[in-house]
Amino acid sequence: MKTIGLIGGMSWESTSLYYQQINRTVQNKLGKLHSAKVILSSVDFQEIAALQSKGLWQEAGEYLAQQAMNLEKAGVDCIVLCTNTMHKVASQIEEAIAVPFIHIADATAKEILSQNIRKVALLGTAFTMEQDFYKARLQNHGIEVIIPKETSRKTVHRIIYDELCLGIIKPESQQKYMTVVEELIAEGAEGIILGCTEICMLIGDVKFSVPLFDTTTIHAKEAVNFALEQKTNANSVADKSVSV
């Protein structure tokens, strides 16, 4: 079994879900008392959020790249960044390490395509919904991406930072998210990406007429698949990014 390196804390609420799901998946696959080999670097999200709000992405990328290098020195075999939004700086992390980086959007695209879906709606922070770093990655896999209207984007973003990242779950916020999802389905979305690792806490168990793609679960399972592989794909290692 390979050792998984997690960069977490953004927020710690969702990082705890990663740790639980990774270990449960390993136990389900291997049985008995098996658990995952994990080394976690958990950052102070307040510091990251401050850089986000100021648009200091280069500095944020340098900081997270240092966390990845520290994990590599500690002996991990791959890096998993436990957040959707900070994949904006994924290239900086990849350039700083020699071990594979498991990209959350690639793992999500793989799951979407496995269900023969080509048009999805993306929920997440304003950074994730409005900027191209995430949507373009999905589009490169041949997936069409739509996002909520502006007022809905503001609502989705606010609830993430003011509530979900603090572990606050409100029925009225769940209803607001459900309304946004139904609007996107009406616009033709064949699936909904929960493109922030905390959103599953709010609507992950809600049933809609189209499938939800919980990026937290998808990413965690992809990390386990990598950890339990007998041999690492040579091409994946060569470009330091796991192709999924």
List keywords for this structure.
single chain, 244 residues, alpha/beta, three-stranded parallel sheet, 13% strand
Explain this structure.
The protein has 244 residues and is an alpha/beta fold. It has helices at residues 12-30, 45-53, 57-74, 90-96, 104-114, 126-130, 132-139, 150-162, 171-186, 200-203, 215-228, 234-238, and strands at residues 3-8, 37-42, 78-81, 119-123, 144-146, 191-194, 212-214. Helix 10 (200-203) links the parallel strand 6 (191-194) and strand 7. The chain is globular and about 45 Å long. Residues 231-240 have low confidence and may be disordered.
Question: Could you provide a short overview of the structure?
Answer:
This protein is α/β, with parallel strands linked by helices. The protein is built from twelve helices and seven strands.
Low-confidence stretches: 231-240
Number of discrete helical segments: 12
**Structural class designation:** alpha/beta
How is the quaternary structure best described?
single chain
Instruction: State the helical fraction.
Output: 40-55%
Helix/strand order: EHEHHEHHEHHEHHEHEHH
| Average pLDDT number | 94
Q: Tell me the strand percentage band.
A: 5-15%
Silhouette: globular
Count the beta strands: 7
| Biggest sheet, spatial arrangement of strands | 5-4-6-7
Rg measurement, Å: 17 Å
